[in-house]
Amino acid sequence: MKLSRRSVAFMLLGAGGLRFARPALGQLLARGQDQAPNRRELTIVVKDFGYSAGRIEVMQDDLVKLTVRSEDVAHSFAIDEYRIVKRVPAGGSTTFEFQADRAGTFPFYCNLTSEPGHKMERGELIVRAK
Ligand SMILES: [Cu+2]
Fold it and tell me: Which of these, 96, 121, 118, 95, lies nearest to 108 by C-alpha position?
Protein backbone atom coordinates (compact mmCIF):
# COMPACT_ATOMS: atom_id res chain seq x y z
CA MET A 1 0.00 0.00 0.00
CA LYS A 2 1.44 3.32 -0.99
CA LEU A 3 1.04 5.97 1.67
CA SER A 4 0.45 9.55 0.79
CA ARG A 5 1.79 12.15 3.18
CA ARG A 6 -1.73 12.91 4.24
CA SER A 7 -2.58 9.36 5.13
CA VAL A 8 0.65 9.06 7.14
CA ALA A 9 -0.32 12.19 9.01
CA PHE A 10 -3.70 10.74 9.82
CA MET A 11 -2.11 7.54 11.03
CA LEU A 12 0.18 9.49 13.34
CA LEU A 13 -2.73 11.42 14.70
CA GLY A 14 -4.66 8.27 15.26
CA ALA A 15 -1.80 6.34 16.87
CA GLY A 16 -0.18 8.90 19.09
CA GLY A 17 -2.77 11.53 19.74
CA LEU A 18 -2.33 15.13 18.74
CA ARG A 19 0.13 16.03 21.47
CA PHE A 20 2.69 13.42 20.46
CA ALA A 21 1.97 13.52 16.79
CA ARG A 22 2.87 17.18 16.37
CA PRO A 23 6.67 16.99 16.36
CA ALA A 24 6.67 13.94 14.14
CA LEU A 25 4.20 15.55 11.81
CA GLY A 26 6.34 18.68 11.68
CA GLN A 27 9.41 16.70 10.69
CA LEU A 28 7.44 14.84 8.11
CA LEU A 29 6.07 17.97 6.55
CA ALA A 30 9.45 19.74 6.61
CA ARG A 31 10.68 17.25 4.06
CA GLY A 32 7.79 17.83 1.73
CA GLN A 33 8.56 19.80 -1.40
CA ASP A 34 5.49 21.93 -1.07
CA GLN A 35 6.40 23.16 2.38
CA ALA A 36 7.75 26.53 3.43
CA PRO A 37 11.52 26.74 2.93
CA ASN A 38 13.99 27.02 5.78
CA ARG A 39 14.60 30.59 6.76
CA ARG A 40 18.09 31.93 7.27
CA GLU A 41 18.86 35.33 8.71
CA LEU A 42 22.33 36.68 8.13
CA THR A 43 24.08 40.00 8.60
CA ILE A 44 27.20 41.18 6.84
CA VAL A 45 29.09 44.30 7.81
CA VAL A 46 31.00 46.21 5.18
CA LYS A 47 33.73 48.68 6.06
CA ASP A 48 37.29 49.54 5.03
CA PHE A 49 36.48 48.11 1.58
CA GLY A 50 35.78 44.62 2.79
CA TYR A 51 32.86 42.47 3.88
CA SER A 52 32.94 40.92 7.35
CA ALA A 53 32.05 37.54 5.82
CA GLY A 54 33.96 36.38 2.79
CA ARG A 55 31.69 33.42 2.48
CA ILE A 56 28.01 32.83 3.04
CA GLU A 57 26.78 29.24 3.05
CA VAL A 58 23.17 28.22 2.75
CA MET A 59 21.23 25.21 1.57
CA GLN A 60 19.44 25.18 -1.73
CA ASP A 61 15.92 26.58 -1.46
CA ASP A 62 16.62 28.36 1.83
CA LEU A 63 14.81 31.64 2.13
CA VAL A 64 17.68 33.96 2.98
CA LYS A 65 17.06 37.24 4.75
CA LEU A 66 20.25 39.19 4.42
CA THR A 67 21.13 42.47 6.08
CA VAL A 68 24.17 44.33 4.77
CA ARG A 69 25.31 47.14 7.04
CA SER A 70 27.92 49.76 6.26
CA GLU A 71 30.07 51.14 9.02
CA ASP A 72 31.57 53.82 6.83
CA VAL A 73 30.75 55.09 3.33
CA ALA A 74 28.04 53.98 0.92
CA HIS A 75 28.53 50.53 -0.59
CA SER A 76 26.51 48.00 -2.48
CA PHE A 77 25.94 44.27 -2.53
CA ALA A 78 25.55 42.41 -5.80
CA ILE A 79 25.21 38.78 -6.87
CA ASP A 80 24.94 38.66 -10.65
CA GLU A 81 23.57 35.13 -10.95
CA TYR A 82 20.73 35.94 -8.59
CA ARG A 83 20.19 39.35 -10.18
CA ILE A 84 20.67 41.04 -6.84
CA VAL A 85 22.01 44.58 -6.64
CA LYS A 86 21.35 46.51 -3.44
CA ARG A 87 22.52 49.90 -2.25
CA VAL A 88 23.95 50.10 1.23
CA PRO A 89 23.78 53.67 2.51
CA ALA A 90 26.67 55.28 4.36
CA GLY A 91 26.40 54.28 8.00
CA GLY A 92 23.15 52.45 7.31
CA SER A 93 21.88 49.09 6.19
CA THR A 94 19.68 47.35 3.69
CA THR A 95 17.72 44.15 4.29
CA PHE A 96 16.30 41.95 1.58
CA GLU A 97 15.22 38.39 0.99
CA PHE A 98 15.87 35.92 -1.75
CA GLN A 99 15.35 32.24 -2.22
CA ALA A 100 18.59 30.38 -2.87
CA ASP A 101 17.05 28.21 -5.54
CA ARG A 102 20.23 27.70 -7.58
CA ALA A 103 22.98 25.52 -6.22
CA GLY A 104 26.58 26.51 -6.77
CA THR A 105 29.16 29.12 -5.86
CA PHE A 106 28.32 32.70 -6.72
CA PRO A 107 30.56 35.71 -6.20
CA PHE A 108 29.18 38.74 -4.40
CA TYR A 109 30.76 42.16 -4.63
CA CYS A 110 30.33 45.88 -4.36
CA ASN A 111 29.74 47.51 -7.71
CA LEU A 112 30.44 51.12 -6.77
CA THR A 113 33.17 52.88 -8.69
CA SER A 114 33.47 56.11 -6.71
CA GLU A 115 36.68 54.87 -5.11
CA PRO A 116 39.00 52.11 -6.28
CA GLY A 117 38.71 50.28 -2.96
CA HIS A 118 35.19 49.08 -3.74
CA LYS A 119 36.67 46.61 -6.19
CA MET A 120 38.30 44.83 -3.27
CA GLU A 121 34.99 43.99 -1.65
CA ARG A 122 34.47 40.41 -2.63
CA GLY A 123 32.98 37.25 -1.25
CA GLU A 124 31.10 34.18 -2.32
CA LEU A 125 27.69 32.73 -1.73
CA ILE A 126 27.78 28.95 -1.54
CA VAL A 127 24.46 27.23 -2.07
CA ARG A 128 24.69 23.56 -1.18
CA ALA A 129 22.58 21.30 -3.32
CA LYS A 130 19.78 19.52 -1.49
CU1 LIG B 1 31.84 49.30 -1.56
Answer: 121
